[in-house]
Design brief:
- With 245 residues, this protein is an alpha/beta fold.
- It has a single domain, classed as Rossmann fold (3-Layer(aba) Sandwich).
- Helix content is 31%, strand content 20%.
- β5, α4 and β6 form a beta-alpha-beta unit.
- It holds the Pfam family DLH.
- Belongs to the dienelactone hydrolase family.
- Its main location: cytoplasm.
Length: 245
């Protein structure tokens, strides 16, 4: 699989056959998927989807997992009604499509979701997680919104020029050792910059033998050797949120 024909690795992995336990709601100008835990809580986590959009069953599975761990989980349509990418789309046009979906320009959507969580869900303790495209969005949001007390960025693509040292609150970075689209030297450089300049808690972790999307795009039952790392990544994500929210 050449990088030229697949400029984003998000097509690697499985599409879960999953219905979801939550419901779709209207949040100002966008739609969102919301799942609430059995017991009332004032803790909430925003879930930022990858290029396949807010309706991907995999992402809703992760939102439901957060709800099962005691959080109100909301996955908004961060594309704001613009077309999500489909695996059947022409990958030669991916770069042009991506220019219309800037992960760092979702403040209007973030503002709407934060207002909804506070006014309609009684949320007071807030966090955010995101996958791939959403992982980039998490980095932006954690440098922009001080009310987000914890963030988890999962395999968000990085560039040598990226400087995310101005994080406002603790952020956890999950990467895969065998992610062809995020070279380990870039991860190392990212960690060096954080160690030098970051004023809040952070952690950068690389999971051995794993490929892009392993936490939310890999089924545990496909490769037994991957199952411990998939489960560990999900557990580490929850533990980080539990620690800081």
């Amino acid at each position: 699989m050449a990088k030229e024909s697949r400029p984003c690795p998000c097509d690697i992995g499985d599409r879960f056959d999953y219905e979801g336990c939550g419901q779709e709601v209207q949040v100002e100008h966008i739609k969102a998927y919301v799942c609430k835990p059995p017991a009332s809580t004032d803790k909430a986590v925003i879930v930022i989807h990858d290029i396949f959009g807010w309706q991907l069953p995999n992402t809703r599975y992760m939102a439901d997992m957060l709800a099962a761990n005691g959080y109100i989980a909301i996955c908004p349509d961060s594309f704001a009604g613009r077309k999500a990418w489909k695996p059947s789309d022409d990958w030669s046009k991916f770069d042009d499509w991506l220019k219309t979906q800037d992960a760092r320009k979702i403040n209007k959507e973030a503002d709407a979701v934060l207002k909804y969580l506070k006014e309609h869900c009684g949320a007071k303790k807030l966090g955010v997680i995101g996958f791939c495209w959403g992982g980039i969005a998490v980095r932006h949001l954690m440098m922009t919104y001080p009310e987000l007390k914890a963030g988890v960025s999962l395999y968000g693509l990085i560039k040598d020029s990226d400087d995310i040292s101005n994080l406002l609150n603790p952020t956890f970075f999950i990467f895969a050792e065998k992610d062809d689209f995020i070279p380990l030297n870039q991860v190392t450089l990212l960690e060096q910059k954080l160690k030098k300049n970051c004023k809040v808690d952070f952690e950068v972790r690389i999971y051995p033998g794993q490929t892009h999307g392993f936490v939310h795009r890999r089924r545990e039952d496909v490769n037994p050797q991957d199952k411990p790392y998939i489960e560990e990544g999900r557990k580490d994500m929850i533990n980080w949120l539990n620690k800081y929210i």
